[in-house]
Amino acid sequence: MSGPSENDILEALEQVRDPDSGESIVQRGMISGLVVKDGNVGFSIEVDPARGPELEPLRQEAEQAAEKVKGVLSVSAILTAHRGAGQGEGGQSSAGQGQGAPQQQAAGQQGGQQARQLAPGVKHIIAVASGKGGVGKSTVATNLVLSLSLLGLKCGILDADIYGPSQPRMLGITGRPQSEDGKILKPMQNYGISCMSMGFLVAEDAPMIWRGPMVQSALQQMLRDVEWGDLDVLVVDMPPGTGDAQLTMAQQVPLSGAVIVSTPQDIALLDARKGLNMFRKVDVPVLGIIENMSLFVCPNCGHESHVFGHGGAKTEAERLGCDFLGEIPLNIDIRETSDSGRPITISNPDSPHSKAFAEIAGKVRDKLFQGTQKAAPKIVME
Ligand code: ADP
């Protein structure tokens, strides 16, 4: 199938000029993440964050220029804060600076002044990740954040799962986040948890191809342009997998640590190992592995079966030198409650499953607030 090429688009964008310098935005190296697929075009325009709001006309002009290229069906351009332009943009990881030191302190020291900081009132941001989809990452993330909140911590969840944002459904949230000033969004709320989801920002029917490039700036927006307020813990429900998008995310968010969710299947464990390595690569401390769907207890007779094998995650965690945080059984109540917006930890806090989540949450809290995790060196994106 023939269609416009990247070069065709760049040629068209060549004509668009940065209002400040008068130079072409292509010449100035402001275009990044250009994707052209079957006539659908997406790219970011990297700008100084301080100039962001006034450059909306530039973004539109660039979109229109690309739309004129023969064969182009759709164009989606976004403004991204350009790398190194200010703090909070380069993906510093400020984890583990001892006792819950607000991570932004470190970020603030680094970067000169400028645009709003990434979630300045949040003490710890942690990622919940999995090597592949369908292992119950979102279910665990929801119940974990609720359990942390039941322990008395003020919590939020940022649903960054571009491929299947599910937090609004799991937390029983409908509607759209509102903004009073047109700039800062108020997170949605339920069960005392503040929630922002990629699902609110990326149209559900947006072609998948957009999601990769879009996610990078959207994620920063969800940290910077959302009124998170003062939170003890913000849980990020990451997209499944360990590709470039996930790696970039892990770099861009100042993470205090990561939790990896795995099923006991070997194959999933191989994937879990990839997840672990990904975080290690970017010096984000792995707080531990959670084995999900570890054991099936027959609701009729109480018989226990290890549908996917058992204990693999624990053994693997030991082998890999990371902590095993606990196991969550395969149970229909967990599925039904999460899928209907009343997660088990809230709807039935006394159930053994909720207790398992509470125990895991306790370990995570201790690691975050008792300074037991290793300090993560800062990451600087070139
Ligand atoms: P992921 O985020 O890894 O793609 P989800 O959290 O969306 O996975 O879970 C996939 C499905 O599995 C959902 O329907 C969810 O309710 C179900 N599920 C997750 N964990 C469990 C569990 N421990 N027991 C039963 N069902 C579960």
Give the fraction of residues assigned to helices: 25-40%
User: How big a fraction of the residues is strand?
Assistant: 15-25%
Distance between the termini: 36 Å
Low-confidence segments, ≥5 residues, pLDDT <50? Answer: 83-115, 372-382
Tell me the Rg in angstroms. 21 Å
Provide the succession of SSEs: HEEHEHEHEHEEHHEHEHEEHEHHH
Number of strands: 12
* Major sheet characteristics: 9 strands, mixed
Shape: elongated
Given the helix and strand composition, which structural class is it?
Answer: alpha/beta
Account of the protein in words:
34% of the residues lie in helices and 21% in strands. It has helices at 6-13, 56-67, 103-110, 137-150, 167-170, 198-201, 208-224, 244-252, 266-281, 312-320, 332-339, 344-347, 352-369, and strands at residues 31-37, 40-47, 74-81, 122-130, 155-159, 188-190, 193-197, 231-237, 257-262, 286-297, 304-305, 324-330. The strands form 2 sheets. Strands 4, 5, 6, 7, 8, 9, 10, 11 and 12 form a 9-stranded mixed beta sheet that branches. It has a 3-stranded mixed beta sheet with strand order 1-2-3. Helix 9 links the parallel strand 9 and strand 10 (286-297). Residues 83-115 and 372-382 have low confidence and may be disordered. Adenosine-5'-diphosphate (ADP) binds at residues 130, 133-139, 166, 240, 292-293, 328, 330-331, 334-335, 338-339.
